């Protein structure tokens, strides 16, 4: 599957302030991002087809693979964040911190009690909100969320967004299981609610989560204040905008079954199937469409069972035929993430982010938690303070330009590459080679034979290095 070049200055990406910094230096003079094989004719045909196809609904897909489904003794996590096509997603780092007792933290809409200590996190998030669509922490915990609609009504009252819960789980959980406990405790105390889009018309949903660490994974699914969790010990699992936990429930809300009985959804006899009991009888279009993606994702995982690698998950996230990689008029994949979590604690967890829309036209760039990570402001959206439309009530009555420098360069590159197929092919090949270098370095760092020398290789790559331009054309 083609991988399009996508950025000129990768030093605008905060993750590269860690030991993988030099990898991006090799790419800094490459301008960026359109799948080179997309000729003008092909784009015209696609645009005409789109006129006769309804816009794809909002959607996300999360994946996890554990041994023996993986090719190595590692857990691999991945997510596509599918959001409104005009929404900017940024990748940001927050260091570990300590807070006095009684401190509050302002989330997207409400305040909650702050923890005494928070872990360092790397987040991929819509630029207008506090939480995150996906991310990882310094202890090798990864979390992604999905929107769902259930028999429990969604409320317009502002509470915690599912994306707030992703960040809170990462900041407070040292393991996937602990993050499940963090999220469910906060959910029961503060509830979930509020608009999930930067628009005046409310768009509200409940949430499912996929959580992973070096040893296990969890699926956590919610319906209002109620929830159920499934523990994944081996193999592969995916979630796609629908309830998927059946009878294999490892933990649940203490009143989950009583509530189901009181609503007449369950008789109290026989097995308790969470998805069957709490799913809507008549699903919204967006959830019906999610069934096909869920099945396609599961099939792709099964095809590679026993041999799943980071590249496998990247390929799945780039798959447009299945609908997993979304590229429609209203919604698109605005950010993607893949992480490799070695079961050997002596080996580093490595996290890859696109930081730009559409993984089929972007390059996954690596990040490792190290001491003294320095965020780079060029990838952060501008701050609007008290004048931000999300902070004014009523909210979202106006729009602001949240594009950061990297996002702007990505947009300019797409336009440029549409007019230069030959140049695009050269850049595409160069970027593919550089991505492979990063992946090869990952394999060396996760080798049980020489993990320390592999990390030293990353450090050596920090030396300034320039990659020659594929041609003499000016860069963006």
UniProtKB/TrEMBL annotation:
GO terms for biological process: proteolysis. GO terms for molecular function: cysteine-type exopeptidase activity; dipeptidase activity. It comes from the Eukaryota. PANTHER family: SECERNIN (PTHR12994), SECERNIN-2 (PTHR12994:SF16). Belongs to the peptidase C69 family. Secernin subfamily. This is Secernin-2. It comes from Alligator mississippiensis (American alligator).
